[in-house]
Amino acid sequence: MGKESEKHLLSPGVYYLQGSQACTEGAITAGCRVYAGYPITPASEVMEHAALRLPQVGGRFIQMEDEISSASVLLGASWAGAKAMTATSSPGFSLMQEVISFAIMTETPLVIVDVQRPGPGQGYITTSQEDVMQARWGHHGEGSIIALSPASVQEMYDFTIEAFNLAETWRSPVLVMAEETVAHMREPLTIPPQNQIEILTRKKPQDLGIPPHSFLPYGHDIVPPMANWGEGYNVNHVSLVHHEDGNVTKYDRKTHFDSVLRIKQKIEGNVDHISRIETRFMKDCRHVVICYGSVSRTAVEAVMEARRECGIDVGFLRLVTLWPFPETKLREVVDNVDTVFVPEINLGMMKHPITEALRDRCKRIVSIPTLGCLHSPEMILSKIYEVAK
Amino acid sequence: MGGDRRYEIRIAGFGGQGVITVGKILGTAFSVFEGKNSVNTQSYGPESRGGACKSEVVVSDGQINYPYVRKADVLVALSCLAFETYIPDLKKDGILLVDSRSITDIPEQDQYRVYRVPTAEIASETGGVKYQNIVALGALYYLIRDHLEESSLREAIKENLPPETRDVNMAAFTKGIQYVKDHYQALGTREKSHGQGI
Amino acid sequence: MKRHPMLKYLKEKGPAGPRMPTIMCPGCGAGQVLNYTLHAVDDILREDGIKKEEVVFISGVGCSSRLTSHYLEFDSGWTIHGRALPIATGALLANPSLKIIVFTGDGDAMAIGGNHFIHTCRRNLNVTILCINNGLYGMTGGQVAPTTPAGIATTTTPYGNIEEAFDICKMAETAGASYVARWTTAHPRQTIKSIKQGVRKRGSAVIEILSQCPVHKKASAVDMLRELKATTVSIKKTSCQPKGKTPIGVFCDKNKPEWTEKYQEIITQHSSRENR
Question: What value of ipTM does the predicted structure carry?
Answer without folding.
Answer: 0.96
